[in-house]
Fold each of these.
Amino acid sequence: MNKTGRNDLCPCGSGKKYKNCCMIKDQALKQNQTKRYYRQNIILKTPEEIEGIRKAGRLVVETLDLVESKIRPGITTDYINNIVHEHTIKNNAIPAPLNYKGFPKSVCTSVNSVICHGIPGSYILKDGDIVNVDITSILNGYYADASKTFFVGTPSKQAAKIVSVAKECLKRGLLMVKPGNTLGDIGWAIQSFAESNGCSVVRDFVGHGVGLEFHEPPQVAHTGRRGHGLPLVENMVFTIEPMINLGRASLRILEDGWTAVTIDGSLSAQFEQTIVVTKNGYESLTPFPLE
Ligand code: MF3
Ligand code: CO
Ligand code: CO
């Protein structure tokens, strides 16, 4: 469209030749545009945007820590919602889940056989439960998304196993992240560890690009084949959030339209972080230890 020749008059109206006026700036802008988009409408983030997501991520991790300090038998999942909501608002941020596609609360709380998208309510946590708390905050317009599964009181052997496998799955997925590796490598690392430990990987929900919106492309599957799928490039920002079941991978959605539960009633656990691909690997923008 803008096909001004180098010796034409500059379209800005300066009266100068284009080559002596706006040509250089226009070329730089065009290069920026092509650098910004990778494939499938994936937006590569600028250093300023990454810093914005990092700040949102710090708040998410701080809120997870606050929740962790309050987890004990006897509290309701609504109480977790209140903690997350108040702490987020107090820090001039917005809880992304609230009213997202009609979701009625500020955080997802997924207990035992709930895989994800559990709605906080009057359920009272009891000794031996596991609960995933999935927090997404919007700070200055930037989104960061992370979750952890907590023990309530003393875990059963089964609970300890599924939480430890899910945590290790996230860790192994993260270790695959570097330029040149593919999305399939991430899925492969997660799937092979989970299945070799007799667990299954949920297929119906995936990780996702994040940062300028809650859910951006690409989809990040937690199963896959080595070397398959999209190659990773520097400045991609996305989540890895494997949902791992003790039994079968199949799920059903409850009447509320959100709560995803294992079809066989088996325990399910999940850990999630938001990461950016760096020159040599990745940086977590929602860092917490995965010991
Ligand atoms: N935080 C979830 C994720 O990891 C999405 C929750 S959507 C909601 O992608 F509406 F349930 F909050
Ligand atoms: Co997510
Ligand atoms: Co999440």
Note: The longest helix spans residues 47-70.
Amino acid sequence: MKTIRSFTLVLAVIAAVSLADRFHFGAAFGAASPPSPGFVLVAHGGAGDYSNMKPEQIEMRRAAMVKAVQAGYAILARNGSSLDAVEATIRVMEDSGLFDAGRGSYYTRDGVPEMDASIMDGRTLNAGSVASLKHIANPIHLARLVMEKTPHVMLVGEGAEEFAKSQGIELVSPYLFFNEREWERYKNAKSAGFSASEEHGTVGVVALDQTGNLAAGTSTGGTVMKMPGRVGDSPILGAGTYANNASCAVSGTGTGEFFMRNIVAADICERVRYLHVTLDQAANEVVMKELVEQHGDGGVIALDQKGNVATPFNTNGMMTATVRADGKMAIQGWSKNAKPIIVSATK
Ligand code: ASP
């Protein structure tokens, strides 16, 4: 009888422990250490209005994003750095020709693209940035080289392209960036006299690697029909891109003039750091309140060292893809109420 009673007791304890494990009642059985965030990568493909975009175009952007994030995921999964993951993911998006970056860049009023990009390491605060590039296929790579191979943070225009040549990067003809879609957009915008547009397709990535380091990067062709020589927020540290292990990593997209005036990326991180608010509160306060009050359109992706993610946007859409160590990638944001599509991050 006694053996049956103690056997029942043992069974009850096993059941309770496995229940606790399942429902995370750790505290009742001695506090479990908080789960390690593992690694996380979040990418965006620009905030804006997707409502006039054909479903096939949205689908093409989604597919390009999946491919890009798979490249970043593979690096993080084999214990690579967040910087490498950010660069690799952005390069795939630049090469796709489907976003306002690299081969898909919007044109200036002169009918050619001018590209900006930046990358930042949250561990060291090292950063590299480039602007007003006309002959560089992968601006994000050049930004990385500025960070690693020069004593400077930012190089622009001809000087940046001369530096690229010295690093063995081929200067490509503007025809490389010619693309029917952008040419149509340019002609329409020109004939309608538009100086700006609701459309954005900038790309950006934030990542947390297995060693707990954050990084952020952004690459863009800027806004439609911008003046030649105009530089936006994307290459400006603290405006369109920022990363600091002490607070967070952010990449922004939207009308850059507002992001520069409001130092959006740094403001979000410094709120986390000094006001001790959550990442979500900080990002929402800046994007959904401060920017909205000024009619500044756009959104951000933000990530902290605990693996918290915030992706607020005040436009109709902002396509994002988020992946964690479990390899389930969630793509969403082409409309406010688009249900996330889950795909595998492993090819
Ligand atoms: N922020 C970019 C710029 O102003 C544009 C964008 O995100 O679409 O250059």
Note: The first strand starts at residue 40 and ends at 48.
Amino acid sequence: MNNCRGELCSPATQNVGRDALGTPPAKTKGRLFVLSGPSGVGKGTVWQEVLKLVPNIKVSVSATTRKPRSGDVEGVNYFFKSPEEFAEMIERGELLEWAVYNGNHYGTPIWAVEDMLASGTDVILEIDTQGALQVKAKMPEAILIFIAPPSFDALLERLKGRATESDEEIARRVAAAEAEMAVKGEYDHIVVNDDLQTAVREVEAIFNPTL
Ligand code: ADP
Ligand code: 5GP
């Protein structure tokens, strides 16, 4: 008597791509990219350009206790949280990594990233160097890209030109840049954002090594 039922009884030809137990092939996981670099170096500008060129890639939306800047949209630029709400996210294990940058907390919600990777979507985390090293420790397969400025003067000019922070905040961000530059050797790739289009092409080539 034939006791097979359902999927296990399927003719062999219907099992193409399945293993001996008839399990369907796992979806190829997405790749995790981490983009860091001093504030104002042009990380956001670079990834927005790269997103136009590379298919099937998304940027994770972080949580932060920093106050929204003009133009920041909840759920698009960040999930804006109170210090208490952020502490609860840490407590509940909801963050893949988190760090304090210039007195504010920033962190990557873990579930959205895991869902995107599981569905085969590549993911970019635009996070600071402290967070990047935490991600590398937890997920060694992550590909770390450091965006460096051509000079500190250029960085200062870009921060002033962006005009989103006070002079004091700009000074704090430039000071933080020194510590961030000191760990760039931990990254898999270093891209100097001097000419924007050159930097965009270099990052695109990291995402698409067949180019
Ligand atoms: P980040 O995300 O690293 O903080 P942004 O992407 O906001 O930096 O860029 C900071 C400022 O520098 C913006 O005004 C942006 O237009 C400018 N910028 C970015 N890349 C370049 C570049 N290659 N040359 C000159 N200015 C740039
Ligand atoms: P900003 O205040 O300019 O949006 O971000 C300040 C710094 O925080 C930048 O270096 C940015 O990359 C970093 N950052 C943004 N989101 C995260 C995050 O989820 N985790 C960590 N560790 N850093 C983040």
Note: The pocket of adenosine-5'-diphosphate (ligand 1) is lined by residues 37, 39-45, 158, 161-162, 193, 196 (CB under 6 Å).
